């Protein structure tokens, strides 16, 4: 079958919220602006976003409420197999591009989506967003297997390109474009008031999912040595890391102003814009949507020197070392130069079209 020069592009991000979804939205916008017909297949409870030039298809059942315990992932998997995969098979025409985004580190579902996509002469592209699994050895093995199923792989850091090469694979590297709404002065002021931070207080912010491997505890340890005019703020959804960090802060007398829970994109971006510095003390990472958002909002960042974080951060420190983290925080807060906000969106479109085997 002869492939059209500009076949339909179907992006698939099943959850409908958080960083990978917001990336898929912006990518869809950019591809639409380049003259491509783009469909974004996503979760039924997706964030309310306006993405002109993109057809939004809420075909995936992926509830945001995480209180269902073990029943929630099994229910998601069951509907994914029985409803979403048959829908994708019917909705993505022969010759089209199917670009699978992330799938929340669920190796088995990723493998199924990619495998089904290979039928009917479709070009299958995969962006794992994380080249490692947070869910154990079996899931990690499935993820590594999934990387061998698509025709092309796109990653969002040069560090992940090297990870792929060590596994005998090749990947395209693209800037990590993100949907980033502008924050108003009133929205920034509201966050500063919530953080009890006047103009004489520097707010150091941890933003995003609070997982054990994201090492908020290292930031709490560093805060023990902070001057009185520096405040630690936390915003994000708890994924198993908050209780320990809250206990640690209480034990050390560290004042943490936290809003623990999922934030819609506008509020999240406003928090990053209102902070003086965003810190990512992670143990492991492929790249970071938080860093990409902060860079576009011109908020300085400090990140652990792991994975692709060093490629976007304003300054780095030795992972796991609170003393070196303090050095980096002091140096960055003393620096009057705002970070370069540029992410090359034209290059992102070019690299995706190259993976899709389409002329720019």
UniProtKB/TrEMBL annotation:
Domain of life: Bacteria
Pfam families: Glyco_trans_1_4
Listed InterPro entries: Glycosyltransferase_grp1
Molecular-function annotations in GO: glycosyltransferase activity
Name assigned to this protein: Glycosyltransferase subfamily 4-like N-terminal domain-containing protein
Native source species: Streptomyces afghaniensis 772
């Amino acid at each position: 079958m002869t492939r059209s020069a500009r076949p339909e592009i179907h992006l698939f991000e099943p959850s409908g919220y958080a960083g990978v979804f917001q990336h898929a939205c912006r990518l869809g916008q950019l591809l639409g602006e380049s003259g491509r017909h783009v469909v974004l297949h996503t979760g039924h409870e997706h964030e309310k976003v306006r993405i002109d030039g993109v057809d939004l298809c809420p075909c995936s059942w992926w509830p945001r409420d995480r209180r269902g315990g073990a029943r929630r992932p099994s229910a998601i998997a069951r509907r994914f197999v029985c409803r979403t995969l048959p829908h994708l098979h019917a909705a993505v025409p022969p010759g089209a591009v199917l670009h699978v985004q992330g799938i929340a580190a669920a190796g088995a579902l990723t493998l199924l989506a990619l495998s089904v996509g290979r039928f009917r002469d479709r070009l299958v592209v995969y962006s794992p967003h994380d080249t490692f699994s947070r869910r154990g050895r079996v899931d990690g093995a499935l993820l590594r297997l999934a990387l061998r199923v698509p025709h092309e792989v796109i990653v969002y850091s040069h560090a992940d390109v090297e990870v792929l090469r060590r596994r005998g694979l090749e990947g395209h590297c693209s800037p990590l474009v993100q949907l980033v709404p502008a924050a108003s002065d009133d929205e920034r002021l509201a966050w500063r008031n919530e953080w009890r931070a006047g103009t004489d207080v520097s707010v150091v912010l941890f933003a995003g999912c609070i997982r054990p491997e994201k090492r908020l505890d290292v930031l709490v340890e560093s805060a023990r040595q902070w001057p009185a005019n520096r405040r630690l703020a936390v915003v994000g959804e708890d994924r198993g890391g908050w209780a320990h960090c809250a206990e640690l802060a209480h034990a050390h007398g560290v004042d943490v102003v936290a809003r623990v829970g999922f934030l819609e994109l506008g509020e999240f971006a406003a928090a990053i814009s209102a902070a003086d510095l965003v810190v990512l003390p992670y143990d492991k990472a492929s790249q970071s949507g938080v860093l990409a958002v902060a860079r576009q909002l011109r908020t300085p960042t400090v990140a652990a020197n792991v994975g692709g974080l060093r490629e976007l951060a304003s300054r780095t420190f030795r992972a796991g070392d609170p003393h070196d983290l303090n050095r980096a925080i002091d140096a960055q807060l003393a620096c009057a130069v705002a970070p370069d906000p540029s992410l090359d969106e034209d290059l992102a479109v070019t690299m995706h079209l190259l993976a899709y085997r389409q002329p720019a």
